[in-house]
Amino acid sequence: MAGRHFLFVPGPTNVPDRVLRAMLVPMEDHRSPKFPELTLPLFQDLKKIFKTTDGQIFLFPSSGTGAWESAFTNTLSPGDKVLASRFGQFTHLWIDMAQRLGFDVQVLEEEWGTGVKPEKIEEILRADKDHKIKAVTACHNETATGVSSDIGAVRKAIDAAGHPALLFVDTVSSLVSLDFRQDQWRVDLAISGSQKGLMLPAGLSVLSASPKAIAASKTAKSKRCYFDFDDMIKANATGYFPYTPPLPLLYGLREALKIINEEGLENIFERHHRLAGGVRAAVKAWGLQPCAKDPKWYSDTVTAIVVPPAFNAAEVISTAYRRYNLSLGAGLSQVAGKVFRIGHLGDLNELMLLGAIAGAEMAMADVGIPVQLGSGVAAAQAHYRAAPASAERAA
Ligand code: PLP
Question: For ligand 1, what atom is nearest to the CA of residue 65?
């Protein structure tokens, strides 16, 4: 199909041309004396992304799922109790992994379209007088439903209960897009991947572990090998890896971090908020609802849009793909066929997003959903004109 493909799934996201070019490198010796010049600054720069000074950064050649596994197996022992909330496909998969790795998971079932409920976590932790619960997991942004949760409030709940559990946070679809503060919220394991806010292909899992998590890794009994913290820490100290690292991704990461630094993290968060507002305005103009049940759950990186009950969201997605060269995110598991998702994170701007909104609008009309053509686009345009970027307001 002529013209550019419109990639609007919530990851992998569009890779900036600068990053693509930076990855086009000949292979080199990853044991050369020069190699650490590439790697050592990456660890330092990634700390700024997680807003941590004493976090230990890990870069594993895997997708984000590998960082989940690494976090669990390095800090917990078989049979350890984990408190986890389930409210979407990714929180479900995270719980499934914890169970398959042999942990005893207490699941808080939450309605899909809502998120982590700190008050429930506090109540359970208060009742856990013997401190049997070793870890609390919280997903900052549930990508399947477009729901963000308040991680600062989870930290307050753990503190209010006076409980020593480790706090694990999934930041796969929030890092570099939503404000995340590892040190302030005392997050012990912040887990992410390369293919969303970091604007890279999938293939690098990115993890930041607090000193408390590193201390836990010294006594944790779960078996691990490829994802072992110790091996990685020893090799990384001098800028090397315990096995062959994915070179082009590391070069791409260096360029992505430069781009992030040029725009500034806070400006990036503001841009994501502004762009998301346009999508939400479009959804309202279509007379539809987001899957997120209440504005407090709205995600600035992905919106899951509920189609009217008589329609199949999968048809909207396939029509958008076939007719308009537009990839929208599928509804997963419980919401399959009920929602389609527009990813609005990473390297994008107003006009790119207006293209996706226009395509979604046409695809919905094509399958018979009664939306007024132009209504969503007009609402998003009005939103963007009313809320220009702060850099532009200052000019
Ligand atoms: N957690 C969340 C919130 C996600 O959105 C995803 C993937 O989209 C994952 C975890 C799993 O990451 P990966 O697909 O990189 O393994």
Answer: 16
- Tokens encoding 244: 């062959």
CA of 32 to the centre of ligand 1 (A): 33
Separation of CA 330 and ligand 1 centre (Å):
14
**Residue ranges with strand state E in the chain:** 6-8, 56-60, 81-86, 104-109, 133-139, 141-142, 147-148, 166-170, 189-193, 205-209, 289-290, 302-306, 326-328, 339-343
- What's the pLDDT score for residue 390? 65
Cβ(75)–Cβ(217) under 8 Å? yes
Per-residue model confidence as pLDDT tens digits over 289-306: 999 999 999 999 999 999
Asked if the bond preceding 12 is cis, omega within 30° of 0, the reply is yes
Q: What is the DSSP letter of 58?
A: E
Ligand 1 centroid, distance to 387 Cα (angstroms): 31
Distance CA 8, CA 21 (A): 22
- Residues within 6 Å of ligand 1 by CB: 11, 63-65, 90, 139, 143, 170, 172-173, 193, 202
Whether residue 148 contacts residue 140, with contact meaning beta carbons closer than 8 Å, is answered with yes
Which residues sit opposite 138 in a β-bridge? 169
pLDDT > 90 in the chain, percent = 97
Nearest-atom number in ligand 1 for the CA of 140 is: 3
The pLDDT tens digits for 223-277 are: 999 999 999 999 999 999 999 999 999 999 999 999 999 999 999 999 999 999 9
CA of 379 to the centre of ligand 1 (A): 31
Total-model pTM: 0.98
Ligand 1: centre distance to CA 369 (Å): 30
Residues 130-155: pLDDT tens digits? 999 999 999 999 999 999 999 999 99
Q: What confidence score (pLDDT) does residue 1 get? A: 84
- Ligand 1 atom nearest the C-alpha of 205 is 15
